[in-house]
């Protein structure tokens, strides 16, 4: 799948291809916060007693430095998608080691709906706001969780990638091996479905008063 990096990343990748070793450090620094977000979203809380998410990021960077030649010589994918894949591999390794999980699907793909709601930042309520408004927000989250749980696992994953991991449309398309147009249309459809279902539930409750 063809892709285009942002100009700054493209320049650093080209410098890396030209033998500039410092370019890798700049690339990793540029993506540190984004990778932390991915690890936060995917991190199994049962690992908290044994592993810190920041250690996963650091381990990923060590592996990236060792395997950068794989990126340069391999299939053309966005640098962050490649980096994210290394972090994913590390999380799977940790699950197998500490939780005896046999496959990625056991834990990393489980509970998507709950994770989408729980991990999403609350931008609608100011800290310390009236308790009643906080209660309404919790009720709304419960509705969202219920609606999302009825989506297919692939649709839930698209929402997780787009909203929690905050990947670009191009990055989501690469990860899911879908055309960008499909990602855009499916994403719009999911958000529209969510909006319509929420309105239906609210109208239904309003009719009971």
- Helix content percent band: over 70%
Q: Provide the β-strand percentage band.
A: under 5%
Q: Could you state the order of secondary-structure elements as H and E?
A: HHHHHHHHHHH
Quote the CATH topology of the largest domain: Rna Polymerase Sigma Factor, Chain: A
The geometry reads as globular
Which structural class do you get from the secondary structure elements?
Answer: mainly alpha
Question: Architecture of the largest domain in CATH?
Answer: Orthogonal Bundle
Query: How many β-strand stretches?
Result: 0
Give the low-pLDDT segments: 103-111, 120-128
Key traits:
mainly alpha; 0% strand; Rna Polymerase Sigma Factor, Chain: A; globular; Arc Repressor Mutant, subunit A; 209 residues
């Amino acid at each position: 799948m063809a892709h285009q990096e942002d100009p700054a990343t493209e320049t650093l990748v080209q410098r890396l291809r030209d033998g500039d070793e410092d370019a890798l450090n700049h690339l990793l620094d540029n993506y540190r916060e984004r990778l932390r977000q991915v690890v936060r979203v995917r991190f199994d809380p049962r690992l908290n007693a044994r592993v810190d998410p920041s250690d996963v990021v650091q381990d990923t960077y060590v592996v990236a430095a060792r395997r950068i030649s794989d990126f340069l010589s391999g299939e053309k994918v966005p640098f962050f998608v490649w980096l994210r894949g290394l972090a994913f591999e590390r999380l799977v390794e940790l699950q197998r080691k500490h939780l005896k999980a046999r496959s990625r699907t056991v834990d990393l793909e489980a509970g998507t709906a709950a994770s989408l709601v729980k991990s999403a930042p609350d931008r609608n309520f100011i800290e310390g706001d009236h308790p009643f408004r906080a209660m309404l927000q919790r009720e709304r989250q419960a509705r969202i969780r219920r609606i999302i749980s009825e989506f297919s696992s692939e649709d839930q994953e698209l929402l997780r990638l787009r909203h929690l991991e905050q990947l670009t449309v191009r990055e989501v398309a690469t990860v899911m091996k879908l055309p960008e147009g499909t990602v855009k249309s499916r994403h719009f459809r999911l958000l529209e479905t969510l909006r319509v279902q929420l309105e239906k539930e609210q109208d239904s409750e309003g009719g009971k008063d």
